[in-house]
Design brief:
The protein is about 70% helix and about 0% strand. It has about 140 residues and is mostly helical.
Protein backbone atom coordinates (compact mmCIF):
# COMPACT_ATOMS: atom_id res chain seq x y z
CA UNK A 1 0.00 0.00 0.00
CA UNK A 2 3.02 2.23 0.35
CA UNK A 3 3.20 2.84 -3.41
CA UNK A 4 -0.30 4.28 -3.42
CA UNK A 5 0.60 6.61 -0.59
CA UNK A 6 3.70 7.79 -2.37
CA UNK A 7 2.17 8.23 -5.80
CA UNK A 8 -1.42 9.20 -5.08
CA UNK A 9 -2.32 12.02 -2.76
CA UNK A 10 -5.70 12.21 -1.09
CA UNK A 11 -8.08 14.80 -2.50
CA UNK A 12 -11.27 16.34 -1.21
CA UNK A 13 -14.56 14.45 -1.35
CA UNK A 14 -15.85 14.62 -4.92
CA UNK A 15 -18.34 12.74 -7.10
CA UNK A 16 -17.00 9.82 -9.08
CA UNK A 17 -16.81 10.22 -12.82
CA UNK A 18 -16.79 7.05 -14.92
CA UNK A 19 -12.98 7.36 -15.15
CA UNK A 20 -12.57 7.68 -11.39
CA UNK A 21 -15.01 4.77 -10.96
CA UNK A 22 -12.90 2.44 -13.11
CA UNK A 23 -9.84 3.64 -11.20
CA UNK A 24 -11.59 2.77 -7.93
CA UNK A 25 -12.49 -0.68 -9.24
CA UNK A 26 -8.90 -1.29 -10.31
CA UNK A 27 -7.57 -0.11 -6.95
CA UNK A 28 -9.83 -2.60 -5.15
CA UNK A 29 -8.23 -5.39 -7.20
CA UNK A 30 -4.64 -4.16 -7.03
CA UNK A 31 -4.80 -3.48 -3.29
CA UNK A 32 -5.56 -7.10 -2.34
CA UNK A 33 -1.98 -8.09 -3.09
CA UNK A 34 0.21 -8.05 -0.01
CA UNK A 35 2.84 -6.08 -1.90
CA UNK A 36 1.92 -3.61 -4.59
CA UNK A 37 4.53 -3.33 -7.27
CA UNK A 38 5.27 -0.35 -9.47
CA UNK A 39 4.04 -2.26 -12.54
CA UNK A 40 0.58 -2.47 -10.96
CA UNK A 41 0.55 1.30 -10.55
CA UNK A 42 1.66 1.62 -14.18
CA UNK A 43 -1.26 -0.59 -15.31
CA UNK A 44 -3.61 1.52 -13.22
CA UNK A 45 -2.32 4.70 -14.85
CA UNK A 46 -2.81 3.14 -18.30
CA UNK A 47 -6.40 2.23 -17.48
CA UNK A 48 -7.21 5.85 -16.67
CA UNK A 49 -5.05 7.24 -19.47
CA UNK A 50 -2.81 9.07 -16.97
CA UNK A 51 -5.73 10.99 -15.45
CA UNK A 52 -4.19 11.77 -12.05
CA UNK A 53 -7.29 13.61 -10.83
CA UNK A 54 -9.41 10.47 -11.33
CA UNK A 55 -6.78 8.43 -9.49
CA UNK A 56 -6.77 10.87 -6.58
CA UNK A 57 -10.56 10.84 -6.31
CA UNK A 58 -10.66 7.04 -6.52
CA UNK A 59 -7.94 6.67 -3.90
CA UNK A 60 -9.74 9.00 -1.50
CA UNK A 61 -12.92 6.92 -1.83
CA UNK A 62 -10.97 3.67 -1.46
CA UNK A 63 -9.31 4.85 1.75
CA UNK A 64 -12.67 5.78 3.30
CA UNK A 65 -14.90 2.88 2.21
CA UNK A 66 -14.99 -0.89 2.48
CA UNK A 67 -14.44 -2.98 -0.62
CA UNK A 68 -18.14 -3.88 -0.72
CA UNK A 69 -19.05 -0.19 -0.56
CA UNK A 70 -16.57 0.53 -3.36
CA UNK A 71 -18.23 -2.11 -5.54
CA UNK A 72 -21.62 -0.44 -5.07
CA UNK A 73 -20.19 3.04 -5.68
CA UNK A 74 -18.57 1.86 -8.93
CA UNK A 75 -21.80 0.17 -9.98
CA UNK A 76 -23.75 3.38 -9.50
CA UNK A 77 -21.21 5.47 -11.43
CA UNK A 78 -21.06 3.34 -14.61
CA UNK A 79 -23.50 2.59 -17.42
CA UNK A 80 -23.86 -0.87 -19.01
CA UNK A 81 -21.10 -0.55 -21.60
CA UNK A 82 -18.75 0.99 -19.04
CA UNK A 83 -19.41 -1.94 -16.69
CA UNK A 84 -18.40 -4.43 -19.38
CA UNK A 85 -15.22 -2.45 -20.12
CA UNK A 86 -14.50 -2.22 -16.39
CA UNK A 87 -14.87 -5.98 -15.94
CA UNK A 88 -12.57 -6.58 -18.92
CA UNK A 89 -9.94 -4.35 -17.33
CA UNK A 90 -10.36 -5.95 -13.91
CA UNK A 91 -10.09 -9.46 -15.36
CA UNK A 92 -6.99 -8.39 -17.28
CA UNK A 93 -5.46 -7.07 -14.05
CA UNK A 94 -6.10 -10.34 -12.25
CA UNK A 95 -4.96 -12.55 -15.13
CA UNK A 96 -1.73 -10.72 -15.93
CA UNK A 97 0.35 -12.65 -13.40
CA UNK A 98 -1.37 -15.97 -14.03
CA UNK A 99 -2.55 -16.28 -10.43
CA UNK A 100 -6.02 -15.47 -9.17
CA UNK A 101 -6.01 -15.14 -5.40
CA UNK A 102 -9.05 -15.96 -3.31
CA UNK A 103 -9.47 -12.27 -2.47
CA UNK A 104 -9.24 -11.21 -6.14
CA UNK A 105 -11.79 -13.87 -7.08
CA UNK A 106 -14.21 -12.67 -4.41
CA UNK A 107 -13.94 -9.05 -5.57
CA UNK A 108 -14.28 -9.93 -9.27
CA UNK A 109 -17.33 -12.07 -8.49
CA UNK A 110 -18.84 -9.17 -6.53
CA UNK A 111 -18.43 -6.83 -9.50
CA UNK A 112 -19.85 -9.41 -11.93
CA UNK A 113 -22.86 -10.05 -9.69
CA UNK A 114 -23.60 -6.36 -9.01
CA UNK A 115 -23.00 -5.35 -12.65
CA UNK A 116 -25.31 -8.18 -13.80
CA UNK A 117 -23.13 -9.09 -16.77
CA UNK A 118 -24.09 -12.17 -18.77
CA UNK A 119 -21.84 -15.19 -18.17
CA UNK A 120 -21.28 -15.61 -21.93
CA UNK A 121 -19.87 -12.08 -22.10
CA UNK A 122 -17.55 -12.83 -19.19
CA UNK A 123 -16.35 -16.05 -20.85
CA UNK A 124 -15.62 -14.20 -24.10
CA UNK A 125 -13.60 -11.59 -22.23
CA UNK A 126 -11.63 -14.27 -20.36
CA UNK A 127 -10.85 -16.12 -23.60
CA UNK A 128 -9.56 -12.98 -25.30
CA UNK A 129 -7.42 -12.02 -22.30
CA UNK A 130 -5.99 -15.55 -22.10
CA UNK A 131 -4.99 -15.37 -25.77
CA UNK A 132 -3.55 -11.87 -25.29
CA UNK A 133 -1.44 -12.99 -22.33
CA UNK A 134 -0.17 -16.25 -23.90
CA UNK A 135 3.36 -15.36 -24.89
CA UNK A 136 4.39 -19.02 -25.01
CA UNK A 137 3.29 -19.12 -28.63
CA UNK A 138 6.16 -16.78 -29.50
CA UNK A 139 8.88 -19.05 -28.08
Amino acid sequence: MEIFSEQLSESGQEDLTPMSAIALAAITIIAVKTTIKADAIDRLKRIVKGDSRSLQIAYKVYKNKSTDECVMIVNNALDGDQKIAAIANLLDLTMVDGTLTTAEKRIIESYIMVFQINEAVIQNIIEVIAIKNDFSIFS
